[in-house]
Amino acid sequence: MIKPLNSREFSASLLAANPLKIQEEVEKCLQASVYHMHLDIMDNNYVPNLALSYDTIISISRLFPQCLLDIHLMVENPNISMARLQNVRARRIYFHSDSKESTSSIINNIEKIGAEPGIVINPTQNWKSIESILPKVQHGLIMGVQPGFAGQAFQTSCYQHLDRIKDIPEINWAIDGGVNCNTLAKLLAYPIKHYVLGSALFKGDIANNIAAIREIENTAIHKEEL
Fold first, then answer.
1. CA neighbor of 181 nearest in space, from 154, 148, 143
2. 63-87: pLDDT as tens digits
3. pLDDT bucket at 226, cuts 50 / 70 / 90
4. Among positive and negative, which fits the CA dihedral 109, 114, 116, 120?
């Protein structure tokens, strides 16, 4: 296995995993040294889809204590979700600025369960919608696709957001959606610390896929050093 040479993180988005074999898919990720899991929660309202159930996420948290769990709330009422996640050992929980509840209450409830709050921005969303929230969080998630479904093509409209984050180094930035061997080389030029992998990881052999991703990362690092 080729190991990354810097602090970038790659996580597995279980939305793209085989829904009938979630435990097996997580085990394959661990065997390939992918310890970060990205868990989506949807309510069929904020986005027209459903993803992992709360019970499944709780089970993953209990069964795989070695994993780092990041949760992405694609819901209209994040505080309702937080009430269901009390027993989940989450590292970070991302929420959307256009949910129906106050930002302060969402952040407070995330911190109450010991997780770190992060704000999400969609590809075509106005940057001003998150500007007032950024001073209140340490993490940001840029969507490379419209939230709700795995396997979408990367939307170039999100580059408007990627250009902005160069001037906001105090936020730990992540990107989710459309990250693959074709898009990664360009994305590595931006100050992103965390890359969420969906179909690029789960379509085919997980170990081979993450090795290819890390090879691209290492090649980019070597070019920077020349």
1. 154
2. 999 999 999 999 999 999 999 999 9
3. low
4. negative
Strands 116-121, 92-96: pairing kind: parallel
pLDDT category at 24 given cuts 50, 70, 90 is very high
Please give the Cα distance from 142 to 2 (Å, whole number): 26
C-alpha span between 29 and 197 (Å, rounded): 11
Q: Smallest Cα–Cα separation from 47: which of 176, 149, 121?
A: 149
Mean pLDDT over 177-194 rounds to 96
And the tokens for 115? 């997780």
Instruction: Annotate 59-87 with b (16+ C-beta within 10 A) or e (fewer).
Output: ebbeebeebebbbbbbbbbbbebbeebee
Instruction: Please give the torsion angle defined by the CA atoms of residues 63, 172, 45 and 61, in that order, rounded to the nearest 10 degrees.
Output: 10
DSSP secondary structure, 188-203, as one string:
TTS---EEEESHHHHS
Q: Helix, strand, coil shares of the chain as percentages rounded to 5?
A: 40, 20, 40
